[in-house]
């Protein structure tokens, strides 16, 4: 029997009412994540992936709802609008921007475009490995430079590690997992004096959360002067849209062309309109930055009281010296329904803990103190 597909369409009233029902769910308190009731079984606290526990812009959520029925189309004007909004935010021409489903693809496209046998990428250890792993998998070599005693980038050591085969230098600022930042004056000098045939890749995934934010620290202002510079940014962190998969790279069009050879498609229409709306939502942005600063300070204060060492955090996470093998600690915390970050060799007795809500971090701190006492790392 042939069926007319329109028979299976929801009636208009039902479509409208489900839309309204969804809107009602959205109107519920957006930022309450966890019931902190000691008698109740609480849901796991996920502070392992540097996601934003404070939610994301309600303006972005509304933009998604409004575009739901238009998702049968590819993004056209929506992508142009976002391109222009990003260009305005970054103060660059629109053709300096390459949108992607998260910033991860920008890192991987760069690896694919620049890796070849005999070439190397210079980076730090411990560091974020998405670009460097892909570089290695595609025939290149990875040269890892240790951080200095304060777990910060040592730009002189990076210079020393560079040779005539260096194709890329990857700088993650703030560094993941340590959260430490590079002095903007020194980084500017480094970029301006780097050989012009070496690509300098600055991953600024968390930079909005550093003191002074993008204005003080971003290297995007050098992009017009330096063809060999790419900046990566994401909507996954301060904007809280990790699940929507949207980010971008900024560079001169000639450099972006090299990446585009490996382009596998852009963000969805829903992510695109959400990102455009998020850029207009200054209130959520400010709320997110302020929440991170407040909760990060609270965590630091408690770690200071407990006498535990940590790297100075400038992103959405904190790297703590626990003295316990991270595999073991991860498993022990998981028994307490708390998921913390993965191992970051060679610092295998440190733990990377994402900053969650204040309530989540209070539970984390209480549990962490108990577990550290069990291991004899703080006095019982
Ligand atoms: C430093 C850094 N760069 C890039 C990414 C990629 O994130 P996304 O693809 O969600 O933009 C992450 C994710 O955690 C990250 O920590």
Description:
The termini are far apart. The chain is an alpha/beta fold and 380 residues long. It is built from 13 helices and twelve strands. The protein folds into two domains: 16-57 and 283-374, Aspartate Aminotransferase, domain 1; 61-280, 3-Layer(aba) Sandwich (Aspartate Aminotransferase, domain 2), CATH 3.40.640.10. The radius of gyration is 22 Å and the shape is globular. Helix 2 packs antiparallel against helix 10 (269-280), helix 4 (104-114) packs parallel to helix 5 and helix 11 (282-306) runs parallel beside helix 13 (358-374). The strands form three sheets. Strands 2-8-7-6-5-3-4 form a seven-stranded mixed beta sheet, with helices on both faces. It has a three-stranded antiparallel beta sheet with strand order 9-10-12. Strand 9 and strand 10 form a beta hairpin. Residues 1-18 and 27-37 have low confidence and may be disordered. It binds pyridoxal-5'-phosphate. Pyridoxal-5'-phosphate binds at residues 50, 102-104, 128, 172, 176, 203, 205, 234, 236, 242, 247.
